[in-house]
Design goal:
The complex is a heterodimer. Chain A is α/β, with parallel strands linked by helices. Chain A folds into two domains: 1-30; 34-180, Glutaredoxin, CATH 3.40.30. In chain A, 43% of the residues lie in helices and 19% in strands. In chain A, a hairpin with a 5-residue loop joins strand 6 (148-152) and strand 7. Chain A is elongated, with a radius of gyration of 21 Å. Chain A starts with a helix and ends with a helix. Chain B has three domains: 1-27; 31-91, Helicase, Ruva Protein, domain 3 (Orthogonal Bundle); 95-130. Chain B has a two-stranded antiparallel ribbon. The longest helix of chain B is centred in the last third of the chain and has 30 residues, at 100-129. In chain B, strand 1 (40-41) and strand 2 form a beta hairpin. Chain B has six helices and two strands; from the N terminus they run ααββαααα. Chain B is mainly α. Chain B starts with a helix and ends with a helix. Classes of the chains: A alpha/beta, B mainly alpha. Chain A binds chain B through residues 14, 18, 21, 24-25, 28, 77-81, 110-113, 115, 133-136, and chain B through 42-43, 54-55, 57-59, 62, 82-88, 96-97, 100, 104, 111.
Chain lengths: 183, 156
């Protein structure tokens, strides 16, 4: 093979590698819809592990801390308008389900701490809130927007999902049946 | 008594003015426009200067608050990274696919450098294949005569 032909081959290989890299980048930036697909098929997948610092105080909180409880996992941010609208509803539901072995667990994400704290004060939220400052845990649940809510059964499996703000109807339909289940 | 009070009040005002002036002079005077170009709006995925989203507004408010508290640009950027993660610093992450942002340019520069070195070597090698002018063998006498005749005919 002549020197010129091998140089051309090297350039083509380099271009192909760059195109493959670009393709991989585009594919990997697509949101993961595995949870949605499993739920559509009627399956409950085990929730991925999640450990984050609390919004207030030291230490860390984990999903495994709530094993045996029904968890309404809510991704929110103080700057997100729909989050403001659903917060009073989530707080009401937290009060409603807490005595029956359920909890709302907030994940404040991509938010300024003082803004998030002001939000909690404004809406009088009493449920636990963890802080995911740069949204690293979002991809585990395929979260791409705010708010999004994932409901876990007592065995820590994903039983329901709402991409967008929750409403009374969604919570009524999903949470009470899970509270009836045994762990 | 009232003169004493007035003197004391004036002294207090002057002292506070001196302190305020000194504090103002030592303030690093970072500007929002300067910082906006160097940080991202993480939700929008664009530099903060181009972002219009609600999160961008909160981020700007946070920066303004720190500017008002006389924080330097570096301090503000550090505080932003502590609040929103290192991805806010308009630098690609150094893990996962984003490593390509560092690797591809580095490899391209390396490839270019290797190409240049190889080409330079080839040039040198091909240059050494040709004999130097001093090493040129003398012309054949018949050729020399022919060249002379040619030149002579052109003169005419």
């Amino acid at each position: 093979m002549s020197r010129r032909a091998s140089a051309a081959l090297a350039v083509i290989a380099l271009l192909a590698a760059l195109i493959a890299l670009l393709g991989y980048g585009v594919m990997s930036s697509q949101p993961d819809r595995a949870v949605d697909d499993a739920l559509a098929a009627g399956e409950r997948q085990p929730a991925p592990s999640l450990t984050l610092p609390p919004l207030r105080g030291d230490g860390s909180g984990s999903l495994s801390d709530y094993h045996g409880e029904v968890v309404v996992l809510n991704y929110w941010a103080s700057w997100c308008e729909p989050c403001r609208e659903e917060s009073p509803l989530l707080q009401r539901w937290h009060r409603r389900i807490a005595p029956r072995g359920g909890t709302v667990l907030g994940i404040d994400t991509r938010d300024v701490t003082s803004d998030a704290e002001a939000f909690i004060r404004e809406f009088g939220l009493t449920y636990p809130v963890l802080r995911d400052r740069d949204g690293r845990t979002q991809s585990k649940f395929g979260v791409v927007g705010y708010p999004e809510t994932i409901v876990l059964d007592r065995r820590g499996r994903i039983a329901a999902l709402r991409r967008g703000p929750v409403d009374e109807e969604f919570l009524r339909r999903t949470v009470p049946p899970l509270l009836e289940e045994r762990s | 008594m009232s003169r004493l009070l007035a003197t004391g009040l004036a002294s207090a005002i002057i002292a506070s003015l001196v302190v305020a002036t000194a504090a103002w002079a030592s303030c690093p005077k970072a500007t929002l426009a300067d910082i906006e170009d160097e940080v991202m709006c993480p939700v929008c995925g664009v530099p903060l200067g181009l972002a219009e989203a609600p999160q961008a507004e909160r981020e700007r408010a946070f920066i303004r608050g720190m500017i008002d508290r006389c924080r330097s640009k570096q301090e503000i950027k550090r505080a932003l990274a502590a609040e929103l993660g290192p991805s806010v610093l308009a630098l690609p992450e150094d893990e996962g696919f984003n490593v390509a942002a560092y690797l591809v340019p580095a490899l391209a520069i390396l490839g270019l450098a290797l190409g240049l070195v190889t080409r330079q070597r080839e040039r040198r090698r091909s240059g050494s294949d040709h004999p130097a002018l001093g090493d040129t063998p003398p012309l054949d006498p018949a050729d020399l005569a022919r060249v002379d005749a040619e030149l002579e005919s052109r003169k005419r």
